[in-house]
Write a structure and sequence with these properties.
This protein is 33% helix and 25% strand. It is of the alpha/beta class. The protein folds into 3 domains: 30 residues; 76 residues, membrane protein fhac (Ubiquitin-like (UB roll), Roll), CATH 3.10.20; 152 residues, Rossmann fold. The protein is elongated and about 80 Å long.
């Protein structure tokens, strides 16, 4: 008997739920869009897009969204359009039960700004994607310059995590990304290293905040081991000689640190 009652209760609850959902769906079909609520996540400290940018993209998608039936608004289409903004990582667009359109936007996180030889400037974000600069905001991140022959037009569609060098040309954004990603996640190097420079031999040099010297690392292979050597040298070497004793500290060679004394 109890089993029959339990089954009957579940059937009644299921019918009630279907009825309520049907009513909500009917009400939403008759409802017009009364407002657009836009939320932009600035928790990464960047302000590449603002509410006005997103509002103009949403509002003009269908001439006007306000006062149109909310059921006619294609949320996925709006998401796709917003996600195509070069500074947007992801967005979520959905309709609320009271007839409002909710738009949530998450920005991309740049970790290094590259200045190439042809005068182009662009970012690499935390996922390795190339990101154009913004006219309204400049992110204060790690800087890479020098003999970088990777113009924006050539690399704009690339991801630095998956770049392969050709016989004719060595692309630098993969090594730059690896270096920038490692430095930003290490407390010591994030505070000590302020710039990456690519020299004529396409070797990577790091410019520190403290100490008047260049740090030659060559490429990004085994970068942790290389900078671990430098950490030991800082503690045992420069602590005795002083931070300005050497003009160049070379970490390219295995198990050794080669230094050039300042004249």
């Amino acid at each position: 008997m109890k089993k029959v009652l339990n089954i009957g209760s579940w059937v009644i609850l299921s019918l009630a739920l279907v009825t309520i959902l049907g009513f909500v769906n009917h009400v939403q079909k008759q409802m017009v869009c009364t407002d657009i609520n836009i939320t932009i996540d600035n928790s990464n400290g960047n302000f590449f897009v603002d509410e006005e940018d997103i509002f103009s993209m949403v509002y003009h998608e269908m001439d006007t969204i306000l006062d149109r039936p909310i059921s006619a608004i294609e949320a996925e289409k709006l998401e796709h359009k917003i996600n195509n903004h070069p500074s947007v990582s992801n967005s979520e667009v959905y309709k609320t039960i009271d007839g409002k359109l909710q738009v949530e936007v998450y920005q991309r996180t740049p970790i290094v700004r590259i200045f190439s030889m042809n005068g182009d400037s662009y970012y690499l974000d935390s996922t390795g994607k190339v990101m154009p600069p913004s006219d309204q905001y400049t992110s204060r991140v790690f800087v890479a310059n020098g003999f970088i022959n990777d113009p924006f037009k050539t690399v704009s569609h690339l991801n630095a995590r998956m770049v392969a060098d050709s016989i004719q040309n060595r692309v630098m954004i993969d090594d730059i990304f690896t270096m920038a990603q490692f430095i930003r996640t290490d407390a010591l190097w994030n505070s000590q290293i302020e710039q990456l420079y690519v020299n004529k031999e396409l070797e990577i040099e790091l410019i520190p905040r403290v100490g008047n010297h260049r740090i030659v690392v060559g490429d990004a292979i085994d970068i942790k081991k290389k900078l671990d050597k430098l950490k030991v040298f800082y503690k045992k070497g420069l602590s005795k000689t002083g931070w300005n004793e050497y003009s160049v500290i070379n970490l390219k060679f295995a198990n050794q640190v080669v230094c050039k004394k300042r004249n």
